[in-house]
Amino acid sequence: MVFTKQLTAEEFNPEVIMNSGQVFRMKRETVGADGMPDTYSAYSGDNDVYFYLNKETDMWDFVCQESQWDFWQNYFDFSTDYTAFNDAIRKSQDRFLKDALKDSFGMRILRQDLWEVFISYVISQNNNIPKIKKSIQTLSDRYSDGIHFPKPDVLAYIPQDELTNGTALGYRADYIIGISKAVCEGALDIEAISRLDYQEALNSLLDIKGIGPKVANCIMLYGFHFMESYPIDTWMKKIISEDYKDYSKESYMSYINENYSGFQGYVQQLQFYHKRKK
User: Fold this and answer.
1) pTM value > 0.85
2) Is 67 part of any domain?
3) Running along the chain, 278 residues long, what does each successive block of 10 average in pLDDT?
4) Which of 189, 191, 268, 269 is most solvent-facing, going by the fewest CB within 10 Å?
5) Cα distance between the two ends of the chain
């Protein structure tokens, strides 16, 4: 079915979202020609959607199963007013962040499938985006239908030698098997962790083998949707040292938490996208 949504360029830009480092399975499927729009796709868990800007109505059309539409509305976080976040940034004195906002119109923080985002960010550690995408697609091709991400009861029982062969997972395969087994055995309940308060959820993630502070904060933001999470990777360290060099790391985080409380993770995504694009 086709579902229609009125969204301004400030509210929704898939090119920005899919290149922001938060998602690995959203892409542009076709480039529009002869007046036809660009077409995009996204996959998350058991769900898949195609979407495009309808040039006749100037509205976004989303094509998915009727039973999945609620999932996708939640996935794109359509209930959150990102323009209000942007208005607060526009009123700030932060020149780098204001430039980042101009460069990143249409950014949103996605609410991704918990299992898929969990394993995706285990794969992401000490890794780059093209390799992460390739590993995820290889897993989906080899252990699912090529579209949907493989389930824990599949990944849990793959021999480690097989899981590392041709997937570029390396040492991460051990973590993936361990986490998958813990889920299958009931020792790890990702859904339950996502319902804890911020600090309890973070501590629970850090207790899991294979999850450090950066990965935990990514899961907190892109899976659990704790908007106060602010993942710090190599790019963010670069931003702090080059664009906020008058701050120590501690004073910088105090600045972010005090001035952008409740949407720190959104600020991080704007900065990350802008710095990589530059």
Assistant:
1) yes
2) yes
3) 96 95 92 76 95 94 97 97 97 96 96 96 93 95 94 96 95 97 97 97 96 95 96 94 94 96 97 92
4) 191
5) 39
